[in-house]
Write a structure and sequence with these properties.
The chain is of the alpha+beta class and about 80 residues long. The chain has one domain. The chain contains two helices and two strands; from the N terminus they run αββα. Strand 1 and strand 2 form a beta hairpin. It is globular, with a radius of gyration of 12 Å. The protein starts with a helix and ends with a helix.
């Protein structure tokens, strides 16, 4: 995984409820709703740098998924 300084300003974000965790905490699932956390933009792959960000700082894509998208992801994963 890179060095500590490289990850010092990176976060994982829950695309469903918006909860977040610092990358160094090694938390991979949301402790509030159980959704897998993301650590980069799904559109441009830039890292999440702001813990309460809702949109990518680089391309403007929303980090949050709609209920329909979340349902489709669950169906595909089963």
């Amino acid at each position: 995984m890179g060095n500590r300084n490289e990850n010092s300003n990176r976060y994982r974000l829950c695309p469903k409820c918006g909860n977040f965790s610092h990358v160094l905490e090694e938390q991979f699932y949301c402790i509030l709703c159980g959704t897998k956390l993301i650590e980069q933009c799904g559109q441009c792959a830039k890292p999440i740098l702001h813990p309460q960000g809702r949109y990518c700082h680089h391309c403007g894509t929303s980090y949050r998924v709609t209920n329909v998208e979340a349902s489709q992801r669950e169906i595909k994963s089963h």
